[in-house]
Amino acid sequence: MNDIDVGASSRAPLQCGVQISPVSGHEGMMLLMLSPRELAGRMTQNHSAKSAAQSAIGMAEMLAHEIKNPLAGITGAAQLLSMNLSAEDLELTDLIVSESRRIVKLLEQVEQFGNLSEPDFKPVNLHDVLDRARRSALLGFGANMTITEEYDPSLPSAWGDADQLLQVILNLLKNASEAAGKKGGKIRIRTFYEHSFRLRRSDGTGKLLPLQIEIIDDGPGLPDTIREDIFDPFVSGRENGTGLGLALVSKIIADHDGWISVSSEPGHTVFRLSLSRVPRDVQSQES
């Protein structure tokens, strides 16, 4: 049977293929196997989307360099003009300066996205990374949030770049905090091990990604209009958002050969990261 919706109360349902067969030698027992169908299709779509995103970022990066120089001239000219203007006219030059600086900041983010270095792969204690991100969030952008942890104490080390993974978690925590607004809200950080989670690529190859991290918030949820494109550059649900935070998260996770997904409804949004363990040859070298 194909395209059967399977889900739990805490997660959005997945379309699965269902196979049922009797167990040899055990009368009355049946073997039930569920295979999520959407993952392979989403991988193919994701590859095409990432190619398009990389092209868009590459063009934006070239334009960024060309735009920043004249913007500096515009800002400087506006500041010179403001020296001899009335208070009423000063509002206009102040607007020119502030908007020019906002555009420069956006262009710098575009350049940072395009110049992201390759991961420096090493064994990473994910709980250490999560604790660093949580403490940083509570001291800054997430000061009005309640952040709780549900860690699997037996979770093995991941294979990745600790600094880049920290950047991923900070972006997700910031996204959840900004969605909650000034009233604040709750964020739950959850880790667990899923033995059978395998990412199967469009070419038929696959990779085990058993290490799971979930960032769960009780905010308003993602707008339906952007949910499918939320990891694309320049897609944002906030009026003043740049649309680069989640695109950067997606790129870093892709560079780690990992997987990121999201399920969202009002009051319950879950970003899930799936990462690989330390390779066996590295484990044997360390021991």
UniProtKB/TrEMBL annotation:
InterPro entries: HATPase_C_sf, HATPase_dom, His_kinase_dom, HisK_dim/P_dom, HisK_dim/P_sf, Sig_transdc_His_kin-like_C. It comes from the Bacteria. It catalyses: ATP + protein L-histidine = ADP + protein N-phospho-L-histidine. Keywords: ATP-binding, Kinase, Nucleotide-binding, Phosphoprotein, Transferase, Two-component regulatory system. CDD domains: HisKA (cd00082). Residues 62-279 form the Histidine kinase domain. The keyword Disulfide bond does not apply. PROSITE patterns: HIS_KIN (PS50109). GO terms for molecular function: ATP binding; phosphorelay sensor kinase activity. This is histidine kinase. Signal peptide: none annotated. It is an enzyme of class 2 (transferase). Pfam families: HATPase_c, HisKA. Its EC number is 2.7.13.3.
